[in-house]
Each structure stands twice: as C-alpha cells, then as structure tokens.
Amino acid sequence: MSLNDPAQVNSSASDQNLSAPQTPSGTFPDLVCFAHLHWDFVWQRPQHLLSRFAQHGRVLYVEDPFVHPDQVEPHLEIKERQNGVKVVVAHLPFGLTWQDSDAEQSRLLAEYFEKENFTQYIFWYYTPMALNKSRNFRPVLTIYDCMDELASFKFAPAGLREREQELFKKADLVFTGGYTIYESKKLQHHDAHPFPSSIDKDHFGLARQPMDDPADQAGIAHPRIGFFGVVDERLDIELLRQLADAHPEWQFVIIGPVVKISHDVLPRQENIHYLGGKDYLQLPSYLHGWDVATLLFADNESTKYISPTKTPEYLAAGRPVVSTPIRDVVRPYGDLNLVQIAATADEFGRAIEKALVQTQDADWRRRTDEYLATISWDLTWQQMRDLMLNRLQAKTAVLATETTDSSLVSAS
C-alpha cells in the first residue's frame, strides 16, 4: 500500500535544516531520488539514468512506504541493487494519519542520513507528492525530472497539482521526459530542459542477431504484431480488439504487467496473447521474434504528454513500428518517416501490412540507424550531469560572495 497525500509534515519532523555546503568544482554529491515507481517494476527512465549516476556517487532511490496490516515498528528497508543503487522503503504500521506517516518517513530518513554521513546531497524528484516527507531537508540542489503528467493518470493523488507548483518553486532545474510536456512545464519554470526518451542501442540491438525464441512465444504463429509496456489506461484496448477481429491471420503479442485496469476488460480473441511482464534483459529475445512492433496508445488525457521509451527501443531492435498519433512519436519519428502513424483501426491495419515488408527497405534501415546514432542514455545522462554541475558551481559562487559580503559587514 502506498501513501500519497497533500498533508504537510510538521516542521519538527526533521532536524535536517542544514545550510547547503559548498561543492568543489567537478565533484558530484550524493543523489537521493524520490519516486512513485517501484525500482523492480519496469526498467525505464529512472533506472537508466540513476544507474549511470550511481557510477559516480551514492544513489538512494526512495520508494513510497509499505504499510503493514498489523503493528510494526517503523523502520527503513535498504535493498542493494547490482548497479550500485540502494532502494529505500519505509515500513509503517497500518492506521497512521497522512501527517504522521510523512513525519515518520522524514524522521527515518534523517536518522539514516546521519548514520551514513549524507551531508551533501542532491534531491531528485519523480513525484511532487514526496515533498510531504522531504521539505524540511536542505539539499545542495533540487531536480524535478518530470517524465509524465501524473495529474492526468488514473487514480492520481489529490493535491498533486498543488504540490507540483511547490516543487517548481524549490527546483533549481526541471527536466522533462519529452518535448510536448516540456512546452507545458517551461511556462512554469525558468530553467526547464527537454530530455526525451533515449535508447540503450547495444542492448536492443541484440534483437537483430540470431536468438532463440522464448518458450512462451515459440509456439505463436507468424506474422507476430508485438507491444511491450505497462498495460494500463493508456493502452487502446478497443483498437487492439478491432485489429484482432479484422486480421485473424495476425498474432498479437502483448508483453507487460496489467495495472490500474481490470483483466476482465482486455479483449480475449484467440489471436491475442498476453505473456505478462518480462525482465528487461529478456526483451530483445521477444523482439527478435516479432514481425512488427506497435505503440497501441489511446487518445486520452493520460497519453497527451507521453514520450514512449519503447519507440527508439523498437527501432534499435530492427523492428518496423506502427503507432497511434502520439505527439512525441509523430515528432520526430513520424515526420522523419521512421515510424508509421495511424489513427483508426483501418489505417492501423494498412500500416501494419506495409510494415510487414519494411525490413526489406534498405533506405528506411539506413535512415533509422543514422537517427539512432544521435541519441543514447549515456548522452542524456552526461548532458543532465553537466547542467547540474554548472548550477552547483553557480550556487557555490553565490554562497561564497554572500559569505564574503556578510564578513565585510560584520567587520565594519
């Protein structure tokens, strides 16, 4: 069970009202990330970026708390991950008020920071709701990596928009997960930067090589039309239903966990195969066995600002791609004629028919690879890191000037 509520933490909940220490030029402080997504759920933007930051300093990934159905002494669980990230989960007893829950989490974090000597740290937010347990700390830098318009998602917590406005006031830098959401957030923060979905080309490029078909996919006939990702309110289940009905000769392979929607609403035609969630390392082997990859996203509030990471991942795997008209897919992938865009079931079906022979198009593959050569998670991480170091150095210079001025005033 997760706790998300706009209630504020009492100012006495944390003793971390520390002045920001100076950061030497070129060094990188510890990084503390507050996230609404479980680290072990789906490997996506936070995992790509924070795993890279962890190669240069300590990284804590603070998840929403786990609430026990019975009484338990509040404590932190620290889970080590092979990439160097430490996942932090507060365990709390059932029945706490929102205020008490946030206060307990703040207290536990303060104790952990003192124990592990976290005195110089960056706060990195994926959810503004985490302000309730962190606003009394004093990070040297505050980053808001706005990967989604969370307020548009199903079951969004009350007060999220208000907390986001508070986070805009605190944040030194705002990063966005795409260009469409950047156009909105740049109006709300003076130092916003777009960082759309990127790619681990070497990993997904494995799908272009000979690979064994996974056991649960091996028995599915061709042509295979695939989709991987979280199956939630963003998936256009009616489009999937219509395509399966209109094309019984195609097999639709859906990979990903089903969340926030009932399994009962999913179409159940014989040519639709739900294989469940898969480990990130397994994805190339599934992609290798697909004939066409799709982005079956609905046109609703939850998809207005998304920038699907799977777009370049599909292309890096060498799969032709058909997508509904998601703005951050149309621009740039549709405009560059790297991905086919289709709005209706009839259009989507015709686009799939074209895509089924697209792997023979040498010009499409060349242009795709030329574009993919311009993006990577390594490059995204480096650009973010440079912006952060520049801002840290600027803040250090301002702090030094203020200290000098204060000394002069005292001396006079």
Automatic annotation (TrEMBL):
CDD domains per the UniProt record, alphabetical: GT4_TuaH-like
Database matches in Pfam families: Glyco_trans_1_4
Domain of life of the source: Bacteria
Annotated segments matching region Disordered: 1-22
PANTHER family: GLYCOSYLTRANSFERASE
Protein name: Glycosyltransferase family 1 protein
Taxonomy of the source species: Bacteria, Pseudomonadati, Bacteroidota, Cytophagia, Cytophagales
